[in-house]
Specification:
By secondary structure, the chain is an alpha/beta fold. The chain has two domains: 3-60 and 382-435, Urease, subunit C, domain 1, CATH 2.30.40.10; 62-368, Metal-dependent hydrolases (TIM Barrel, Alpha-Beta Barrel). The protein is built from 14 helices and 17 strands. It has helices spanning 85-96, 101-117, 137-148, 177-191, 214-227, 239-249, 253-259, 277-286, 294-299, 307-313, 332-347, 354-368, 402-408, 438-449, and strands at 3-13, 21-30, 33-38, 49-52, 56-60, 62-64, 120-127, 151-158, 203-206, 230-235, 267-271, 289-292, 316-319, 386-390, 416-419, 422-426, 429-430. Strands 1, 2, 3, 4, 5, 14, 15, 16 and 17 form a nine-stranded mixed β-sheet that branches. An eight-stranded parallel β-sheet has the order 6-7-8-9-10-11-12-13. α2 packs parallel to α3 (137-148), α2 (101-117) crosses α14 (438-449) and α4 runs parallel beside α5 (214-227). The radius of gyration is 21 Å and the shape is globular.
Length: 456
């Protein structure tokens, strides 16, 4: 069993129940687990590798709770960035309908590279768009995640309502309910791993209340509960969505979800911007998790999610970069800073200290994905998922609190990242240098999907 010792780490921020921060600490990894950690003299060798942590802050690997990785090929699209959500979707569906297996594979690699380089070790993905003849795109992104080495929670998304049925997407990217449910069951049987430390787990994720039927929402929940997998969807992202639900169902989004049997502890929801105090209490009592997407909500002008009220009510809240086309980066340490700043804008400076925002990105995400016994803190027996950030550079000069400085001083990238006991980032570079060859390949694919002369 390989033994790796991190020693003389300036600060190890564990985010454990005691909130311990070890100064000049050490952490021992044996195989793919954290074996021990502490201050003072480290345990005796031999070690396969000893890593110097001087001038570095170690945190648990961050967990991204909502993404659309295929959108990595559609960043900063002219004509899209200034639109509200519904108009933004209609505009981009016309471009997204051209994705294929290669586009999904490469975009997963690119988005995953950026996540790893920012200190993220686990990511979800919400792939809900399946052009005709491209039914196995989830399989493709699982293979890409394996090449990267990132811990992966793909969610089998779905859309069954095209424009002719009152939805937003074109007809050639939606599927029948039978196709959706059959493939969902296939993916669970083939890939879902419920064991401790699993690298792949499947969840089921109808896209949104305005893209599937109530019957599909109910049947998806039944299927998920049959196999013990989680459920995910977008909810309460914009006022347009609220108006749609009131007009079509006579219910606010949270009420509609309750009617479908979705207010339950096996559900996590992306956004939750436009909810009231009563709805916050209801989702807290039900045990529903929330993926907070601050940059996406700002870019699309959707609003500021009431994160502090949700946390005060006991809601499980994690952090998410959301799709690259509604954020334009997949950088988790930047997203944690955005979460800190945006909540301060709404509630005041005391409402979101840096450590609270970092906890959203680590333990918060683990709780949302029901993996807090495995991930989200640095404790003996947990998975060896961790990130170190170099604080010796000019941007951190004069910083009195190294942990808070990760966000206050706008840290951009991790120095070292380990996932499941494997070193994937060293000195700010991916260990597998071959992955960088995907960058020009991604540019070529993006240019083919989105010819610049057709969007300017």
């Amino acid at each position: 069993m390989k033994r790796v010792l991190f020693r003389d780490v300036s600060v190890i921020a564990t985010f454990d129940p005691e909130g311990r921060e070890l100064r000049g600490g050490w952490l021992l990894v044996e195989g793919n687990r954290i074996a021990a950690l502490g201050e003072g003299d480290p345990p005796p060798g031999p070690f396969d590798e000893v890593i110097d942590g001087h001038d570095k802050v170690m945190i648990p690997g961050m967990i991204n709770t909502h993404h659309h990785l295929y959108q990595t090929l559609f960043r900063a699209v002219p004509g899209a960035a200034e639109k509200k959500l519904f108009d933004w979707l209609v505009f981009l569906y016309e471009r997204w309908r051209g994705i294929d297996e290669e586009a999904v594979y490469v975009s997963t690699i690119l988005g995953g590279m950026e996540l790893l380089l920012s200190g993220c070790t686990t990511t979800t993905d919400h792939l809900y768009l399946f052009p005709q003849g491209k039914e196995k795109l989830i399989d493709v992104e699982i293979e890409a995640a394996k090449e990267l080495g990132i811990r992966f929670h793909p969610t089998r998304g779905s859309m069954s309502l095209s424009r002719k049925d009152g939805g937003l997407p074109p007809e050639d990217v939606v599927q029948t309910e039978e196709e959706i449910l059959s493939d969902s069951e296939r993916l669970i049987a083939r890939y879902h791993d419920p064991s401790f430390g699993a690298m792949v787990r499947i969840a089921l994720a109808p896209c949104s209340p305005f893209s599937v039927t109530p019957e599909l929402m109910r049947k998806t929940a039944e299927l998920a509960r049959k196999y013990g997998v989680l459920l995910h969807t977008h909810l309460a992202e914009t006022l347009d969505e609220e108006a749609f639900c009131l007009e079509k169902f006579g219910l606010r989004p949270v009420d509609y979800l309750a009617e479908l049997g979705w207010l339950s502890g096996d559900v996590w929801l992306a956004h939750m911007v436009h909810i009231n105090a009563d709805e916050i209490e209801r989702i807290a009592r039900a045990g529903v998790g929330v993926a907070h997407c601050p940059s996406s909500n700002m870019l699309l002008g959707s609003g500021i999610a009431p994160v502090v009220e949700m946390l005060s009510a006991g809601v499980r809240v994690g952090l998410a970069v959301d799709g690259s086309a509604s954020n334009d980066h997949s950088n988790m340490i930047r997203e944690a800073r955005q979460a800190m700043l945006l909540s301060r804008l709404r509630y005041g400076a005391e409402a979101m200290p840096a450590r609270r925002a970092l906890e959203l990105a680590t333990l918060g995400g683990a709780r949302v994905l029901h993996r807090e016994k495995e991930l989200g803190t640095l404790e003996a027996g947990k998975c060896a998922d961790l990130a170190l950030f170099d604080i010796s550079g000019v941007e951190h000069a004069g910083a009195a609190d190294p942990v808070a400085a990760l966000l206050h001083c706008a840290t951009q990238h991790a120095d070292t990242v380990m996932v499941n006991g494997r070193m994937l980032v060293r000195a700010g570079r991916l260990v597998d240098e071959r992955l960088y060859e995907y960058v020009p390949r991604g540019r070529r694919i993006a240019a083919g999907l989105l010819p610049i002369d057709k969007v300017l």
